[in-house]
Amino acid sequence: MPTLVKNELNVYECAEARFEMAAAKLGLEDDLYRYLRFPNKEITIYIPVTMDDGRLEVFTGYRVQHSLVRGPGKGGIRYAPDVTLDEVRALASWMTWKCAVVNIPFGGAKGGIICDPQKMSQKELERMTRRYTAELTDWIGPERDVPAPDLGTNEKVMAWVMDTYSMHMRHTVTAVVTGKPLDLGGSRGRREATGRGVHFVCDKAIEKLGMKREECRVVIQGFGNVGSMAAMLLSEAGYKIVGVSDIHGGLYNENGFNVPAVIEWVHGQRKPLPDFPGGGAKMAGQELLFQPCEILIPAAIENQITSANAHRVQTRILCEGANGPTTPPADDVLRDKGVFVLPDILANAGGVTVSYFEWVQDRQGFFWRESEVNERLKDVMERSFDEIVRYAESHGVNNRIAAYMVAIDRVAFALKLRGLYA
Questions:
Q1: Catalytic residue of the set 98, 110, 204, 240
Q2: Positive or negative, the Cα torsion across 152, 154, 156, 159?
Q3: Does any domain span residue 389?
Q4: Are 106 and 349 in contact (CB under 8 A)?
């Protein structure tokens, strides 16, 4: 039966559609359905910032806490000119289900500010970040809601958040955010975590499908932290990276790329990826999604594979490194094509898993070796993959709906145990 959404490109409607489909398959009780489909809290903040030229600019920021049933909210803060409340709502709900899929004791939250960080100085970004944090002081904290980096933010921004919150608390609170610099309580392995999680589930998928690493061509859309780390780790493991792209465009080369050289070109020398001198056919970043490969990893932004273009996808495995890259109607097309989908709430959960490890280490005041972090991450990702695939097969649903069903069931069970305070 086709998946129906009024506006396929509205990420919140897409998130709602998947929740409703999984809830129906699960037979979720009406009371629990009504409770879980709405966010716990939505906060809108107007942030006055004195710009470097002396004028006052007012930015709009959001923080949505979708669910705190299983633990503190968890979710990144993104800085982008196209941030919307619907987008933040959707991302917060995905964080709820993502944390439940990998069974870590967090709920879901997300934040964002409508701005263009590329056009702002470091001082302007710092002033904006600190004011945003100060306004959220009553709503975030190690036991309430723990932010992290996302699109347009990084460990420096997290250091500003931690310092601002700590100043208000009158003592250092490292566990208020994750994704911090190592010297401020960050975790080893955090920067590579999402890409490493992608690598682990790709390994599990090819094992499941009887494929071999050396016979797998990989195309990666997006060459930020997630895409570049996934490319490096998969290449080191023996996969052939034949397609890569960034915001400037993409390259496709059947012979494969020297991934360390591409990373140095893009992140070391800060040059546009399509200008990389290592060869390959230039094309638009989205066009890269439709090149032949065994594994396709969209690791950029939402709504890249839709009902309008899903028929052009030429891959055996779709591993979602980004949040929401595939719309619900596109899932129907991919299912009919026999594509094995590793949904975002599983495939890119390596980042939040190691964020959880960072939070644990901060609260203990005891830090782990990187090998320990990676070993624990591998255990979580492989166990979660096995649970989702087993659930999909036993319930006759695709991997995405299985992941939602597992996640919703865990949150609903916790809610029933706690009861409703009303």
A1: 110
A2: positive
A3: no
A4: no
Domain that holds residue 64: 40-181
Do 381 and 200 contact (CB within 8 A), yes or no? Answer: yes
pLDDT in tens, 45-78: 999 999 999 999 999 999 999 999 999 999 999 9
In terms of domains, do 106 and 214 share one? Answer: no
Q: Is residue 94 part of a domain?
A: yes
Active site residue 98: no
- Over residues 95-137, the pLDDT tens digits come to 999 999 999 999 999 999 999 999 999 999 999 999 999 999 9
Question: What is the CB-side half-sphere exposure of residue 178 using CA atoms within 13 A?
Answer: 28
Phi/psi at 218 (5° precision): -120, 130
The first and second tokens of residue 75, run together, are 């979710």
CATH code at 109?
Answer: 3.40.50.10860
Instruction: Give tens-digit pLDDT for 186-241.
Output: 999 999 999 999 999 999 999 999 999 999 999 999 999 999 999 999 999 999 99
For residues 72 and 170, state if they share a domain. yes
